[in-house]
């Protein structure tokens, strides 16, 4: 898909949901975009049985949290810059504060707190629904305007000739 498209003229949550549906990994894990506004994104993930650390464990695989944070942070970059251009995760660091129970949905809240022409910086907290305090905190850095396949919303594809 060629070109770039601003998200200001479209419903940003709809654009974010479409993006999530087009990324097989996010779709397979069951990630849902709840809100996307200004420089923030909130996502939810209801863990399925195949996301457990093992059959006897009462917690989720830590990689599930990592994937959720990476997705939420990437979408927070799009929310902040209001443009759908290719980005790439440069660095993602996670502090796992406590195990994420497998019986509760995860809520991720990411905010892009600074960006330049080349790099964006994002923080994200992950909570288990119904519990106080985060289970994990992530800090991510994204390269902006990377070379690669561009993507656009379905609305803009209909306008292309």
Itemize the secondary structure elements and their pairings:
Elements: E1 5-6, H1 12-22, H2 24-29, E2 31-37, E3 40-45, H3 62-81, E4 83-84, E5 87-96, E6 106-115, E7 119-128, E8 136-144, H4 154-157
Antiparallel strand pairs: 1-4, 2-3, 3-6, 5-8, 6-7, 7-8
Describe this structure in words.
The protein is α+β, with helices and mostly antiparallel strands. The protein has a single domain, classed as Hotdog Thioesterase (Thiol Ester Dehydrase, Chain A, Roll). Helices cover 25% and strands 35% of the residues. It is built from four helices and eight strands. A hairpin with a 3-residue loop joins strand 6 (106-115) and strand 7 (119-128).
Strand neighbour order, sheet with most strands: 2-3-6-7-8-5
Query: How many helical elements?
Result: 4
Q: Please tell me the total number of domains.
A: 1
The CATH architecture can be named as: Roll
User: Helix proportion of residues, in percent?
Assistant: 25-40%
**How far is it from the N-terminal to the C-terminal residue, by CA?**
12 Å
Question: Which CATH first-tier class would you pick?
Answer: Alpha Beta
Q: What order do the SSEs take from the amino end to the carboxyl end, as H and E? A: EHHEEHEEEEEH
Count all strands and give the number.
8
Strand count, sense and barrel status of the largest sheet are: 6 strands, antiparallel
Radius of gyration: 16 Å
The chain-level structural class is alpha+beta
Low-confidence stretches: 1-5
């Amino acid at each position: 898909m060629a070109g770039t498209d601003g998200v200001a003229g479209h419903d940003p949550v709809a654009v974010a949901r479409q993006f999530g549906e087009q990324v097989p990994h996010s779709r397979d894990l069951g990630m849902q975009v709840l809100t996307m506004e200004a420089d923030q994104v909130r996502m939810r993930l209801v863990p399925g049985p195949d996301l457990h650390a093992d059959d006897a464990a009462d917690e989720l695989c830590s990689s599930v949290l990592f994937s959720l944070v990476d997705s939420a942070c990437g979408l927070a970059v799009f929310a902040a810059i209001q443009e759908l251009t290719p980005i790439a995760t440069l660095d993602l660091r996670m502090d796992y504060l406590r195990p994420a129970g497998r019986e509760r949905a995860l809520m991720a809240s990411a905010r892009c707190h600074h960006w330049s022409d080349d790099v964006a910086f994002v923080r994200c907290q992950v909570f288990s629904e119904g519990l106080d305090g985060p289970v994990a905190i992530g800090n991510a850095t994204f390269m902006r305007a990377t070379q690669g396949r561009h993507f656009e919303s379905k609305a803009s594809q209909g306008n292309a000739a």
